């Protein structure tokens, strides 16, 4: 018996991690279709067969929402795809999204036992596969959508959620599953938060986001768009209207600028604006869609995170001949996911590393050049990354017609400024318990980027999920 | 969907829409604005709330046909709906008993100045209003402004009604007449509030600067979300970058960099023209 298992394991280790089919770089950098094409059934079965089905799996602990990864992969091995999806949905209402945008390499896949000697199991790709498979089968009429029409009747207390990004959606879904009457208030005209305004179509198709949101709605969650909370309704209004608890998940929606000269010239965008125009407002379809965007020939993107990669890749797709990514540290320190960096490079983004803008030079009110200074890496700073130090006298100019600032986002004060008694950090983030999300105001919870500062989709989802448990406990016990 | 319960043509190319939006009407204050989107492919544009009625839940906006979006808006009829109306956005006007105030409204700046003048008068200010248009037949809201002002002066660029000249020219003469000379005859002006095209507001700020009168202007920059998320609307006030949507729309006119505002308003000139041309061509074909 032992010998048989050993043989089986040996055989498994021989199968290399199944690569993700992708559009060719030179083709994809001219369209907005999804870059990664997803596994075929054969790919998925092959990849699933690599999973060791560990007795004490580490992967589940590596997942911020604790998906039962071992079980869902087992179900794939058994070709029980619907059940595999059901297993994921027990813990995660947005599998098609997470399968695409989660940094699995830092979470579940990082601790995968298989990864010690070999490449880890491609958990994210498998998650995506089962979620996409259901969508495809429903679209092709092979299968009835089990949940599209069934809107559950929730009868328990009313809960308000502010912001329909990943944190809000997850919190809402969890609470609705427990029978609470949940209303999510969204400021924009479309629910999804960063999933719709921030992450581009080619990385996360909006059809998929819509579909996952439909699933959340089918659980009984109501979503009201065009509701800028704090303006149209205050926290106190919500309590007066009978909401027993409020979860604030308004994200990191305030763009930072560098504060250098020339930043208000025509042609300078915050990444938020550039991506919102392109994604939410579909400016890439201009003039079919009415929202314009400046399509430059030479574009500089400042920053090294995922938002910078997204902006650069959008710029390329909008027809720019040269897209320069200006980052003050080296590639090693870039906060972007490796996959995004790799994709950006393949698509022809030109990296200008160890350089930092000092001035944007204009001509007739428009961006003309960006002046940068070369940097070297000094001692590590608080974040553990080596601090960039300017090299005196090393300034150089790059001719550009558009500059996109992707140097980070802060908490948007629009809502918090209307709640004077709410305690904030000195950066304007809401002070909340990292597990329960409790703020200093009874009945008010908060989670996601508005608490932690700009982070990831899955961390916001994790916060939404644990806050949902805390909200349930608060409602049941009335203990704050 | 937000239903247009009534539409009035004020003058050629300028319409007033009464829109059912009870939650917005309940909270709206003078000086605030809404962002609207007409259809699925439409852009988001800001429009000042011209009035609000808390009891029947109706807000009104006034829009002039300039580009595709405003042209589409003007093609909507009573009982049609606007896909998205978001608000009330921006900060409300400061309404206090300042004493003697001058409200200056130019063109489509008159509708937004109207509720401000009304609220200022209600609280006890002596309201002097100066409104202007290119010509008599383009002047709007004359009666409303009459009702809400202690003194009303009308200007027209072509002299077809009232004072022949810009509102800023009239303001200058008015201030010179009332604020110079004999100290006991002087009637100090506590503040000037000016709303209209950027050039007009800039001219008003230039006129009041030597008199040292606090001058408030309401800026009309390009916006997308209107909630401080994108920074499209950024302007420079007192040398610092501000977002019109959340820090404004009203600012100290003497601190505003109008040159930058004017430049930034023109960012999408070419695209707007392209969009409009396609739209007009399509309209012609439809006919």
Report what the structure shows.
- The complex is a heterodimer of chains A (480) and B (287).
- With 480 residues, chain A is of the alpha/beta class.
- Chain A contains 19 helices and 16 strands.
- In chain A, helix 10 (166-177) links the parallel strand 1 (158-162) and strand 2.
- Chain A is globular, with a radius of gyration of 23 Å.
- Chain B has helices spanning 22-27, 68-75, 110-122, 142-148, 167-179, 198-208, 244-247, 258-265, 269-286, and strands at 2-11, 14-20, 33-37, 45-53, 58-64, 81-82, 84-89, 100-106, 126-133, 151-156, 163-164, 191-195, 214-218, 234-237, 240-243, 250-252.
- In chain B, helix 5 packs parallel to helix 6.
- Chain B has 287 residues and is an alpha/beta fold.
- Chain B has a seven-stranded antiparallel β-sheet with strand order 6-1-2-5-4-3-7, sandwiched between helices. Chain B has a seven-stranded mixed β-sheet with strand order 11-10-9-8-12-13-16, with helices on both faces.
- Chain B is 31% helix and 31% strand.
- The model of chain B has no long low-confidence stretch (mean pLDDT 93).
- Classes of the chains: A alpha/beta (480), B alpha/beta (287).
Secondary-structure topology with pairs:
The complex is a heterodimer of chains A (480) and B (287).
Chain A: H1 2-14, H2 25-28, H3 41-48, H4 59-62, H5 69-77, H6 81-89, H7 95-101, H8 114-117, H9 123-139, E1 158-162, H10 166-177, E2 181-185, H11 194-197, H12 206-218, E3 222-224, H13 235-240, E4 243-248, E5 254-255, E6 268-270, H14 271-280, E7 298-302, H15 306-317, E8 322-327, H16 338-346, E9 350-353, E10 355-363, E11 366-380, E12 386-390, E13 396-399, E14 402-405, E15 409-410, H17 413-416, E16 444-446, H18 449-452, H19 457-477
Helix pairs in contact in A: 3-5, 3-9, 5-6, 5-9, 6-9, 7-9, 10-19, 14-15
Chain B: E1 2-11, E2 14-20, H1 22-27, E3 33-37, E4 45-53, E5 58-64, H2 68-75, E6 81-82, E7 84-89, E8 100-106, H3 110-122, E9 126-133, H4 142-148, E10 151-156, E11 163-164, H5 167-179, E12 191-195, H6 198-208, E13 214-218, E14 234-237, E15 240-243, H7 244-247, E16 250-252, H8 258-265, H9 269-286
Parallel strand pairs in B: 8-9, 8-12, 9-10, 10-11, 12-13
Antiparallel strand pairs in B: 1-2, 1-6, 2-5, 3-4, 3-7, 4-5, 13-16, 14-15
């Amino acid at each position: 018996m032992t010998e048989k298992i050993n043989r089986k394991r040996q055989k498994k280790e021989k199968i290399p991690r199944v690569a993700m089919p992708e559009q060719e770089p030179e083709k994809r950098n001219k369209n907005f279709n999804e870059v990664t094409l997803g596994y075929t059934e054969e790919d998925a079965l092959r990849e699933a067969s690599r999973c060791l089905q560990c007795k004490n799996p580490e992967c589940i602990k590596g997942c911020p929402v604790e998906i039962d990864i071992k079980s869902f992969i087992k179900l794939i091995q058994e070709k029980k795809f619907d059940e595999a999806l059901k297993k994921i949905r027990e813990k995660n209402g947005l599998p098609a999204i997470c399968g695409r945008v989660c940094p699995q390499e830092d979470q579940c896949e990082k601790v995968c036992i298989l990864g010690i000697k070999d490449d880890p199991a491609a958990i994210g790709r498998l998650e995506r596969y089962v979620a996409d498979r259901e969508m495809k089968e429903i679209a092709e009429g092979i299968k009835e959508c089990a949940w599209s029409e069934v809107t559950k009747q929730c009868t328990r207390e009313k809960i308000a959620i502010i912001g329909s990004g990943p944190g809000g959606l997850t919190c809402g879904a969890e609470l609705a599953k427990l029978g609470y009457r949940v209303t999510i208030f969204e400021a924009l005209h479309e629910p999804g938060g960063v999933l719709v305004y921030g992450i581009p179509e080619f990385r996360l198709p909006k059809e998929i986001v819509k579909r996952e949101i439909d699933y959340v709605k089918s659980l009984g969650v109501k979503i009201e768009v065009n509701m800028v909370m704090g303006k149209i309704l205050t926290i106190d209004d919500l309590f007066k209207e009978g909401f027993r608890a409020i979860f604030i998940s308004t994200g990191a929606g305030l763009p930072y600028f560098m504060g250098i000269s020339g930043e208000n010239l025509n042609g300078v965008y915050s990444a938020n604006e550039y991506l919102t125009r392109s994604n939410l407002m579909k400016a890439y379809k201009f003039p079919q869609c009415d929202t314009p965007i400046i399509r430059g020939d030479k574009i500089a993107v400042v920053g090294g995170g995922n938002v910078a990669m997204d902006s650069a890749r959008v710029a390329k797709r909008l027809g720019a001949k040269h897209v320069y990514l200006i980052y003050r540290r080296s590639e090693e320190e870039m906060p972007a996911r490796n996959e995004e960096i790799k994709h950006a490079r393949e698509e022809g983004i030109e990296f200008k590393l160890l350089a930092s803008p000092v001035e944007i030079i204009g001509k007739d009110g428009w961006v003309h050049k960006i002046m940068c200074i070369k940097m070297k890496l000094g001692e590590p700073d608080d974040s553990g990354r080596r601090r960039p130090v300017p090299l005196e006298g090393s300034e150089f100019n790059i001719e550009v017609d558009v500059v996109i600032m992707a140097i980070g986002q802060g908490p948007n004060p629009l809502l918090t400024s209307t709640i004077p008694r709410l305690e904030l950090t000195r950066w304007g983030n809401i002070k909340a318990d990292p597990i329960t999300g409790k703020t200093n105001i009874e009945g008010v919870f908060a989670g996601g980027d508005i608490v932690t500062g700009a982070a990831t989709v899955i961390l916001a989802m994790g916060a939404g999920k644990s806050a949902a448990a805390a909200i349930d406990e608060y409602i049941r016990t009335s203990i704050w | 969907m937000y239903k247009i319960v009534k539409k009035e043509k004020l003058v050629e190319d300028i319409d007033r829409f009464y829109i059912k939006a009870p939650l917005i009407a309940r909270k709206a204050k003078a000086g605030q604005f809404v962002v609207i989107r007409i259809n699925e492919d439409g852009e988001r544009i800001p429009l000042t709330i011209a009035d609000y009625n808390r009891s029947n839940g109706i807000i009104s906006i006034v829009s002039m046909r300039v580009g595709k979006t405003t042209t589409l808006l003007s093609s909507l009829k009573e009982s049609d709906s606007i896909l998205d109306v978001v608000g009330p956005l921006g900060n409300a006007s400061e309404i206090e008993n300042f004493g003697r105030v001058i409200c200056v409204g130019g063109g489509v700046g008159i509708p937004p100045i109207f509720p401000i003048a009304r609220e200022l008068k209600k609280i006890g200010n002596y309201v002097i209003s100066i409104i202007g248009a290119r010509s008599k037949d383009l002047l709007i809201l004359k009666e409303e402004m009459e009702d809400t002002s202690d003194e009303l002066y009308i200007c027209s660029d072509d002299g077809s009604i009232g004072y022949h000249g810009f509102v800023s020219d009239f303001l200058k003469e008015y201030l010179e007449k009332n604020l110079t000379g004999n100290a006991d005859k002087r009637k100090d002006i506590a503040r000037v509030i000016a709303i209209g095209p950027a050039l007009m507001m800039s001219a008003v700020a230039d006129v009041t600067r030597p008199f040292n009168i606090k001058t408030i202007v309401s800026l009309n920059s390009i916006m997308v979300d209107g909630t401080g998320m994108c920074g499209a609307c950024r302007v420079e006030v007192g040398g610092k970058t501000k977002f019109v949507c959340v820090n404004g729309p009203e600012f100290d006119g003497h601190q505003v960099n109008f040159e930058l505002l004017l430049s930034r308003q023109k960012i999408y000139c070419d695209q707007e023209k392209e969009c409009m041309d396609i739209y007009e061509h399509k309209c012609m074909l439809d006919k």
